[in-house]
Amino acid sequence: MTLLLRGRAHVYGDNIDTDRIIPGKYTKTLDASALAAHVMEDLDPDFRERLKPGDFVVAGNNFGCGSSREQAPVALQTAGVSAVIARYFARIFFRNAINIGLPVLEIPDHDISMGDELEVNLSTGRVHNYTTGQTYWAKPLPDIMLRILQAGGLVNYLRTHKTF
Question: Could you give the CA distance from residue 48 to residue 34 in angstroms, rounded to a whole number?
Fold first, then answer.
């Protein structure tokens, strides 16, 4: 995984729950591409058409609240989202995202807008908005979480490090 990411922002508000990320009726499969085909469809029916590989989902407070379904970050990642930026994450979504290898960054004071061009440095937490010229600093991820992300998720990390 590269630690420097660049893409456009797809911005949403507060309290985006996991049912809005991937509707429950689609969670009966283990096929990640089937999940990705329906990601965000109830919240933003045009999301999949606008999304380019490497783009970011950006949100307000409490992103990923609701059920603890791991399919939500899987659907985002499989669809091509390179990272999720929010003012604050529901903790279970935050941990599920790290566990499957989807970077998440908390920036409590961001004012990123739809379509802004961003560059994210995962190792430093620096997020530069090329559209506005602003730079934000995400709360730093602990080193172990960066290593899990670099390994492609917790399962890959544990396989590599044989810590079980």
Answer: 13
Domains, the chain, with CATH or none: 4-161 (3.20.19.10)
In the chain, what is the straight-line distance between the N-terminal and C-terminal CA atoms, in Å? 23
Annotate 64-103 with three-state secondary structure: CECCCCCHHHHHHHHHCCCEEEECCECHHHHHHHHHHCCC
Could you give the percent of the chain with pLDDT greater than 70?
Answer: 98
Instruction: Tokens for 81, please give them.
Output: 């989202």
Both structure tokens of 123: 């190792």
Mean pLDDT, residues 70-90 taken together: 97
The per-residue pLDDT for range 102-127, each reduced to its tens digit, is 999 999 999 999 999 999 999 899 99
Neighbour tally for 89: CB within 10 Å? 22
With residues binned 3-state (H G I as helix, E B as strand, rest as coil), the percentages for the chain, rounded to 5, are 30, 20, 45
Report the candidate in 135, 113, 18 with the shortest Cα–Cα distance to residue 56. 113
